[in-house]
Amino acid sequence: MPDFAIAESLTSARTHYCPGCGHGIIHRALGEVIDEMGIHGDIIAVAPVGCAVIAYHYFNFDFTEAPHGRAPAVATGMKRAAPDKIIMTYQGDGDLLAIGLAETIHAANRGEKITIIFVNNGIYGMTGGQLAPTTLEGNKTLTTPDGRDPNEVGFPIDLMEMIKTFPGVKYLARGTVSNPGQVLRTKKYMKRALEVQQENRGFSLVEILSTCPTYWGMSPGESLDYVQNVVAEQFKTGVFKDE
User: b/e map of 96-120 (b: 16 or more CB within 10 Å)?
Assistant: First the structure.
């Protein structure tokens, strides 16, 4: 594929994401991974509610919609009905760890042979910038105007630490899109997660630390620096499990 060409797995639709949002970077990287793996005709993805609710406008393969938080449950049914297909969900932190926490935990515990791409920007982007399960301590949001206080709303949830001991979980990794080198590393994580599913081994998930300049009140450049220098210090990056 020539440099800067649109991946076959992506469409040429005009983006609706805010300037500096990480979703566009992640979409491109994921589309390139799918092309490189040659699974364009075998993958089916699930988009839930959140900023990526219309992800299917940007990907040129089969997508379905799920109610808020229920993408892992929908993906479970799809994988059991079509075990020869690669089934993937694409979810944000509010969707996956708030209303969808039960679905996520139980799919992981059952070792469902699906892959989750988890985009963590630490805030509810689509609904106006409220506190999310991964909002860092002290961060100001619409619903925590004085900063996140653990005494009132609890601590940020680290999904990797929560599910890495589950026997059915076979691959866990966390990357960022804060600079080109990190994007390339995150691409490798996504490729490995999909390979684990190809090998029919169990549940795989990649968390990607992303940006939300709009509700962080930062410029795109500042938000990238913030991910690398602050968020990635709280949520350590790397491979947490590869069995």
Answer: bbbbbbebbbebbeeebbbbbbbbb
